[in-house]
Design a protein that fits this description.
alpha/beta; six-stranded mixed sheet; 6 helices; binds zinc ion
Length: 199
């Protein structure tokens, strides 16, 4: 079993419960692939690694931040309210530092789902990666594309590292023709290829 991203701090309990429901022991989790080092994607990572012994994969840039328990880019709040919110969240939610076992560089195919392709999708963070399984047509896009009730949108706003790169990463992923999109936030999207934001 492979897990993509590890949720908020405390998420390990929910993930291990879900695995138990599928009849899988913790040791059944062999790999954890991390799209980027934000606390809501690596919060459960240290506890999951301890409980399962899974090997952890991320890009070198994100791995450096994960090893320190910090985000991989500084967040530039647009106003005082955003500054207060980000400050509070940063204090409430801290991800424990974790050593990443293997670096993903982009372009490789992992032996998962008949070949899970690693894509460099920087913009939201500098070392953000996405994962695409061509045979199943499933794209796991982390926070590079957000799934909202109103539709899909690319990463924008104060916690975006580089807007031009973020837009380019959306275009690159739109060209894949994915049937199913699994975003870091929001519902799974079917018939995804026709729903990408036009940038
Ligand atoms: Zn994020």
């Amino acid at each position: 079993m492979t897990l993509i991203d590890a949720g908020l701090p405390g998420s390990h309990k929910k993930i291990l419960r879900y695995m138990a429901g599928l009849g899988d022991a913790p040791k059944g989790l062999r790999r954890i692939l991390i799209t980027h080092s934000d606390y809501d994607h690596v919060g459960g990572l240290a506890a999951l690694k301890a409980a399962t012994g899974a090997r952890i994969f991320a890009s070198a840039i994100e791995a450096e931040a994960i090893a320190k328990g910090i985000p991989s880019r500084s967040i530039k709040p647009a106003n005082l309210l955003a500054k207060l919110v980000y400050g509070l969240m940063g204090r409430l939610f801290k991800a424990a530092p974790v050593q990443v076992d293997e670096f993903l560089v982009g372009g490789e195919a992992l032996p998962i789902l008949d070949g899970l392709n690693v894509l460099e999708t920087p913009g939201h963070t500098p070392g953000h990666i996405s994962l695409f399984a061509p045979s199943a047509g499933i794209l796991f896009c982390g926070d590079s594309i957000i799934s909202e009730k109103s539709g899909l949108r690319g990463s924008t706003g104060s916690n975006n590292w580089d807007q031009a790169k973020a837009d380019e990463s959306v275009r690159k992923q739109a060209a894949l023709g994915a049937n199913i999109l699994c975003s870091g936030h929001g519902p799974v999207v079917m018939d995804a290829a026709n729903k990408f934001p036009r940038l």
